[in-house]
User: Which sequence fits this backbone?
């Protein structure tokens, strides 16, 4: 029997009060994804040390290497226990519920302006070679062309949003979905960061939250299931804990607090954290 340490409050409630039925969608060393049969949504079981996130449960396990859990294994819940085939049972006893709460946009922008400048410099020095930030010259024509497209399309998207041309902004945002290598493509990651900022109360684009939801309607057919869920959740202000902590640090934190939070985001994936951070910067500069 494994113990759930913390997790998304709605996910925990579904396990405790309802019959959760699904199957294993994909497995990795420290996470596994479950597809819910009722809704079709993806849910994640993650090992300790990974931060809380929407639709995610953190358990007291270092890795899944020896669990022998495989794609299509049946997942079900009963009496506050989530079972994966006959291979693992996870109890909700003592679990700590987490829910994403993004901070409100600050009324005074002095700290934010200073922190955004610090964040941009830190990304330039320590970011993980994002293809979005600048023209990326790898010597590989395919990679160089993808880098050019990512850079160009993110710039066009931000320009259209700044000028409140929402219909063309949707077109540019849609052109980013699925663009780039990796489990969560760079274009998707940038949009997760941008959606995060646009979903913050008092941001000048908060009234255009329907923009995010419209883009997500196009995303289902253009990217993989895992990346789609991240986009869908970010569109309604639901992001992983490290990202919401970074927003709080940007708005009200010291330089030390900002750097500490930023490091956690930059550590997401190989380049995903850097691309998310660049989306956040773009959204904040749009407001300033």
Assistant:
């Amino acid at each position: 029997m494994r113990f759930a340490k913390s997790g998304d409050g709605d996910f925990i409630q579904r396990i405790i009060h309802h019959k959760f039925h699904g199957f294993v969608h994909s497995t990795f060393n420290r996470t596994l994804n479950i597809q819910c049969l009722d809704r079709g949504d993806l849910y994640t079981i993650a090992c300790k040390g990974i931060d809380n996130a929407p639709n995610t449960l953190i358990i007291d396990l270092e890795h899944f290497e020896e669990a022998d859990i495989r794609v299509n294994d049946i997942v079900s819940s009963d009496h506050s226990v989530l079972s994966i085939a006959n291979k693992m049972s996870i109890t909700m006893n003592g679990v700590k519920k987490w829910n994403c709460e993004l901070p409100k946009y600050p009324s005074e922008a002095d700290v934010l302006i200073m922190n955004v400048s610090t964040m941009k410099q830190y990304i330039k020095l320590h970011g993980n070679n994002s293809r979005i930030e600048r023209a990326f010259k790898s010597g590989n024509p395919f990679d160089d062309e993808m880098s050019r497209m990512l850079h160009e399309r993110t710039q066009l998207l931000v320009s259209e949003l700044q000028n409140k041309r929402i219909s063309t902004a949707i077109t540019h945002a849609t052109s980013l979905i699925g663009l780039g290598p990796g489990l969560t493509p760079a274009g998707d990651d940038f949009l997760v960061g941008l959606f995060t900022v646009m979903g913050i109360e008092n941001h000048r684009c908060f009234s255009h939250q329907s923009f995010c939801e419209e883009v997500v309607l196009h995303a289902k057919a253009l990217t993989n299931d895992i990346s789609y869920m991240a986009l869908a959740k970010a569109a309604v202000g639901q992001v992983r804990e490290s990202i919401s902590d970074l927003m709080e640090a940007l708005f009200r934190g010291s330089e030390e607090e900002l750097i500490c939070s930023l490091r956690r985001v930059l550590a997401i994936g190989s380049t995903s954290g850097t691309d998310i951070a660049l989306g956040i910067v773009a959204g904040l500069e749009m407001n300033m």
